[in-house]
Amino acid sequence: MRREHRHGFTLIELLVVIAIIAILIGLLLPAVQKIREAAARMACSNNLHQIALANMNYESSYGKFLPAIGKNGCCWGTWMVPILPFIEQDNLYKGYINFGGLDWTGPRYNGGVNAAVTSVALKAFTCPSDSASVKGSTTEHNYVLNVGNTTFFQVALPIGCTPGKAGCTPFLGAPFGYYNGASIDSTGFGWDSTLPWGPGASPVAGPQPNINNGLMGKQYTITSISDGTSNTLMASETIQGSSGDYRGFTWWGGAAAFTTYLTPNSSLPDVMDGGGCGAVPPMPPCTTTSTLAYPRMVAARSKHSGGVNAAMCDGSVHFVRDSVSSVTWNALGSAQGGEVFDGSNAF
Question: How is residue 33 annotated by DSSP?
Fold first, then answer.
């Protein structure tokens, strides 16, 4: 009787099989990563759509768009607070007190009972392409509102220039007010009310009138967007900065907005005066020095390849390429500029 002998793999055959598997893995990994990033980008786009719808629902309820910042500047809450009831976070909203800083004895965004609100990481405000970060116990997020085509101060650049003259970029309106009531300091404009009461006031004297009080964060109606809601940006993405980098720290006024003076993912630095840039050199670029020519501003930035997601004031969401021209991006940032542009150059 004849026996058949079965032989196992030879060493060479085994090495060939391993090599083939390695090649297949090498081919599949980029495809898997692309699929994963596409899913993350889609989730990010959906987040922006929900934020846009929440803003529209707020407008339906109050007749104006969200306040982008509290009336006394940086530190008594941003749009992240009044939007909460419109993203099914009413309990968090009820837990936040002193929005706008109009009660001079009340806490700021990260103080007292408000810390229980601002320590919560909100999925609706977080892009899965980025890594979650915190500053102390305060969470960071990935979305910012459009405050126009120049600077957080919403004036022509350089500060003090005359619109219409060479080298002067006029401010052409925005769907949200920001530091438009800031006081003047040595660099041109301050970034906050020094206090929500006047000079010389004390806990004994009580609150006093202040030139800044109630001027910042002006709210606008939908009809004020004369460029058209489909031609005007409402919100876009930002990155969550690690360590001492304050980008993404959107409970704080210095990081809760963007302007279109810088193009998406610009190689020029964000101006984080009053905050911090973290590691040296920071990536993306960043500076804490605000000047008359280059005052406080933040670009739209993302961890996606090639661009940023952005929501328009009509609720639509687009992926805007990094290669968008500065003229087109500047026009998308203005609300009353009257510019004519081809959206195909951006989306």
Answer: H
